[in-house]
# Entry
Amino acid sequence: MDQTTTARRVITKDEYEEACRRVHVASRLSGEGVANVVAAALSAVGVLTPPLRPDELEPGCCTAQAADDHGYWLQCGEDPGHAGESHGDGDFGWTDEYADAIPPQD
Ligand SMILES: [Zn+2]
# Structure
């Protein structure tokens, strides 16, 4: 573990309760269980996991990414170079101005 001189942050009771709530929800989801639980817990206290690497992106789709309310990184499902600044995966939509968004990369 990285030994830094920065003290760890003590989260608030509300943050802790929100993290527990989100982990409870995430733990019932199928798929990459542990990764989803970690993402949900970190997101609840204002931290995001690393975005999708270029080799993890779906080929043939727009490369814009955004983290949803659960801290899960989503890739835009539209065609590369599509018109407009709106992106989405069908359930979650965002623009390049969304705080937790990464605009399309070339
Ligand atoms: Zn897009």
